[in-house]
Amino acid sequence: MLELVNLLNSYVWSNALVFLFLAVGLFFTVRTRFVQVRRFKDMVKLLFEKNNDNAGISSFQALAMSLGSRIGTGNIVGVAAAISLGGPGAVFWMWITGFFGSATSFIEITLTQIYKSKLEGEYRGGTPFYIYKGLNLKWFSVISAIVLTVVIGLLWPTVQANTIALTVQDTFNIPPLVTGSLLALLIAGIIYGGVKRIATVSEYLVPFMAFGYVGICIVLLALNVSEIPAMFSLIVSSAFNLNAAFSGLLGTAIAMGVQRGVFASAAGLGTETFESGATSVSHPAKQGLVQALSIYIDTFLICTATAFMILITGKYNVIPSGGDPIVNNLPGAGPELYTQVAMGTLVSQTFGQYFMTASLFLFCFTTLITYFYKMDTNIAFVREILNLKSSSNFVNHLARFGLLGMVIFGAINSAPLIWGITDLGVGLLGWINVITIFLLSKIALKALKDYDEQKLAGLNPVFRQSKVGIKNADFWEELEEKELAEREIAATKELKARGRTIK
Asked: Which of 147, 171, 243, 351 has minimal CB crowding within 10 Å?
């Protein structure tokens, strides 16, 4: 099966997809006039905007859920895997991917908010919604929702569970089957509580784990600050084929940097759109800016902290696919151990082992619980579009059991197969979503222009569908009609109170 998965990946993850991510990210960066830089202050400020709507969650909760999904095994094992195949230069291309990806994320999240709906009493939005409403392609929106359900609910949970199981086995000698079963029980206790419980768990757990991990890494790097200039030089020289040791790896460095960078940040895949569709904001661009910030946190904090620790200690291998080792500092060790050994070198092996086990568990666990919400949103979309509401309970329970079953499957199967399946899922989603948001980018740019104009006028931006003129933005159209009706009722009451009548 591994051979088949690798064959499919060779087609899906061709150079065309790698450069598509970079080209589209550059295009969005230019067309938004570097929104990820000029609106950075707004990104931070909007995090703390209050939400008084019971049907939605706050921007901070959505960010926490999204970071809980983004920050997973890709930020630790994925970074190490990129270095092991593409050399230190892959880190530079992860940074480039993250910078451009921030603009890409702004576009896809703004589209999510523009085309969101209210289903079953909750706000819902994401890739299938803007394909259906923006492109008017019902059949394609249903196909995309099914693909997303399979990839997010059945394929991706395997790699997170596999990472947890292998780490726990290495640290505590607990069999993967036991770990996978206990993990499935923990996840079941949360996902059966719905989006509010998932959001609450993420809101408190994600900041603790993310900043705790980065904090420890910063302290350890500060103790070795004299090594940092040489490390930067190594990364940059390797990225442009200027380092003799890594000459000939330029193409691989770019490919691995982009591929692992996309998997870590998920910018452009559409998988991080669903949490943002659940938020209540006054303007779509607001949530787009908040999620653009999450790419910075994911790539420039978490991924960079991991890469720096690995490189500064030299605890890594570089073995090109099908070639001889270029660096072989950890003979026989796989990328899943690089960070643990690096941290053990900086402090102690015992501390490094236990800390990395705890970090990976928290990172992967929060990712797994958010996968359910994404899957559930796609299922809700299909039920609504195809009018299958009568079978909702059966489908919901089947989806939950499917995800929990794949957690156990991932825990007990081999890592190469699991990573191959995950990469295949990432590639499929990339082709679907990047092309879609490129075709719809003018809509998101309209919303950004409206946001910029209101900010320039000193206003708190509020989206008016009638002013911006975007078709099929029915949620905002209904909201505007409701507000107008409430104003008319208020005006009528005021006139009646003054003893007048309306003719």
From this structure: 351
pLDDT string in tens for the chain (503-residue length): 778 888 888 888 777 887 888 999 999 999 999 999 999 999 999 988 876 666 567 777 777 777 766 776 678 888 998 999 999 999 999 999 999 999 999 999 999 999 999 887 788 999 999 999 999 999 999 999 998 888 888 888 888 888 888 888 988 999 999 999 999 998 888 877 666 667 677 767 777 777 788 788 888 778 888 888 888 999 999 998 888 778 778 888 998 888 888 877 878 888 889 888 888 889 999 999 999 998 998 888 889 988 998 999 899 999 887 778 899 999 888 887 888 888 888 788 788 788 888 887 887 888 888 888 888 889 989 988 988 766 667 777 888 899 999 999 988 876 677 767 777 877 888 888 999 999 999 999 999 999 999 999 999 999 998 899 899 999 999 888 887 777 677 767 776 776 654 44
Contact between 114 and 476 (Cβ < 8 Å): yes
- Taking residue 337's Cβ as centre, other Cβ atoms within 10 Å add up to 21
Residue 23 phi, psi (nearest 5) = -65, -45
- For 69-102, give the DSSP string: HHSSGGGTHHHHHHHHHH-THHHHHHHHHHHHHH
Q: Which of 492, 462, 501, 497 is nearest to 479 (CA)?
A: 462
Spacing of C-alpha 456 from chain mean position? 31
Q: Among 486, 433, 452, which residue's Cα sits nearest to residue 20?
A: 433
**With the C-alpha atoms ordered 92, 98, 104, 107, is the resulting torsion angle positive or negative?**
negative
Contact 270, 109 (CB under 8 A): no
* Measured distance CA(101)–CA(272) in Å, rounded: 12
DSSP label at residue 57: B
